[in-house]
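Fold in tokens:
===
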Amino acid sequence: MNGSKIKILIVEDEKIIGLDIKRTLERIGYEVINIVKSGEAAIDLTGELKPDLVLMDIMLSGGISGIEAAEAIRRKFDIPVIYLTGLTDEETFHKAKITQPFGYLPKPFDQKGLHSAIEMGLYKHKIELLLRLKTVELEEEKKKTDNLLMNILPAGIVKELKLNGSVKPRLFENITIMFANFQNFISLIQKYEPVSVVGQLNEIYHKFDMIVEYSGLEKMKTIGNTYMIGGGLPIESDDHAMKVIEVALKMSEYMEKINGKNNHEWQLRIGINSGQVIAGVVGMHKFTYDVWGDTVNIASRMESSCEPGKINISRNTYELVRDVYDCEYRGKLNAKGMGEIEMYFVNGVK
């Protein structure tokens, strides 16, 4: 700051001393906006005039001491305070230090010492403000990073990752995986404006996200025109298959509404399977929570073997939901390396 623009409030109950300080400050080039005698007046005028710095005598007339007034000024207005005092006893000095002033100037003082104390106090205050601002910026960046991680990874996984720096792979004995895929996506891109088609896909995925989050399931990832979710992980549950099919039905219902308004049809196929998987986080910089095992491969085969507008589930999933959902047997799929897998269409709730 330019010295001629720095405004200083003097708090001194000895009039002669106060005027002497004022003359000294004005010779240096500072602007003295007022001289007050009490801590109460100092607080009021600081709030009204907003000085750049307050020179505060520790021992004041009135109901509060200079130390108490300085604490109030720092707390309310965040304005630097430099103490002036003729007292040098340890108790007073200790009390003054606790308030963390921006300077401590014992009387008598000379012009050079006063100038140095003020400039140092202003500099310390500027640095403190910058550090606080940087701290706030770092906290904001931390929040952004945390929110980003929460959008990418499950909450429990984020906690483990932040705590340990890594996530251990885990075996889940019985969960449910669902793949949803738009069979005619490439033809839509070729026939209609690609940007418009991808924009609508984004809107569809946004709605899918809302459905999944509301149901308490876990969105695993999207790969182009394929949307993948999991039930029963990373928090295990007994109703994972029920919830996944509930979500699948809601997605299908939503797509029926979309197709009713469009001049083109989105052909959604959904495949679901239940069983054992290994789950964990892969990647060092771009984290992904992923799952591995035959259960995942079969779920993918259920989707690719499905018909547009249908929900195709494996025998494993059927056994978990047969009492609640109306399922239609549709034959067997010969899956390489896995044998024949019985499949069922889900028609709705019984």
